[in-house]
């Protein structure tokens, strides 16, 4: 989600304390974080390996609306003792990308529909003539 934001917006988001109650045991300086976000933007997905919690690996992809704006993210989280990074990226990531793409496509279709639905009550005067 951070990778979809510009630098100023990332700064604004990072200035707000987390409400998750989780204290990450890995911290990055701003230049390191900017490099990670550039990499995520280039790949189109993010990998967290023992960064959020020990023993937890996760891969995430964006879900976009019909205009291409990132509105959500989807992820697969595994225990690192049971699933390697290679398996997570080679087996789970493609399915995750397909699912996010399908949701994004559905979102675009939903956004392209007329914003005002015409009900039968509005047609009644025309039909009754």
Short description:
The chain has 129 residues and is of the alpha+beta class. Helices cover 46% and strands 18% of the residues.
Please explain how this structure is put together.
It is built from four helices and three strands. It is α+β, with helices and mostly antiparallel strands. The protein has a single domain, classed as Beta-Lactamase (2-Layer Sandwich). Helices cover 46% and strands 18% of the residues.
Task: Describe how the helices and strands are arranged.
Elements: H1 7-15, H2 30-43, E1 46-49, E2 56-64, E3 70-79, H3 85-112, H4 120-127
Antiparallel strand pairs: 1-2, 2-3
The count of DSSP E runs of length 2 or more, i.e. the number of strands, is 3
Please give the CATH class.
Answer: Alpha Beta
Structural class: alpha+beta
Rounded mean pLDDT score: 87
Radius of gyration: 21 Å
- The CATH topology is what? Beta-Lactamase
> How does the overall form come out from the CA principal axes?
globular
Strand order of the largest sheet: 1-2-3
What is the helical fraction, as a range of percent? 40-55%
Main traits of this protein?
129 residues; alpha+beta; Beta-Lactamase; three-stranded antiparallel sheet; 3 strands
């Amino acid at each position: 989600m951070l990778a979809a934001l510009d630098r100023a917006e990332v700064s604004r988001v990072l200035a707000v304390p987390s409400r998750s109650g989780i204290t990450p045991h890995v911290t990055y300086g701003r230049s390191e974080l900017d490099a990670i976000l550039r990499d995520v933007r280039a790949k189109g997905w993010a990998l967290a390996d023992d960064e959020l919690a020990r023993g937890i690996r996760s891969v995430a992809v964006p879900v976009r609306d019909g205009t291409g704006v990132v509105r959500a993210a989807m992820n697969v989280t595994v225990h690192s003792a049971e699933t390697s990074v290679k398996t997570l990226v080679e087996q789970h990531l493609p399915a995750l990308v397909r699912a996010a793409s399908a949701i994004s496509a559905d979102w675009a279709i939903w956004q392209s529909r007329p914003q005002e639905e015409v009900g039968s009550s509005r047609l009644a005067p025309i039909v009754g003539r």
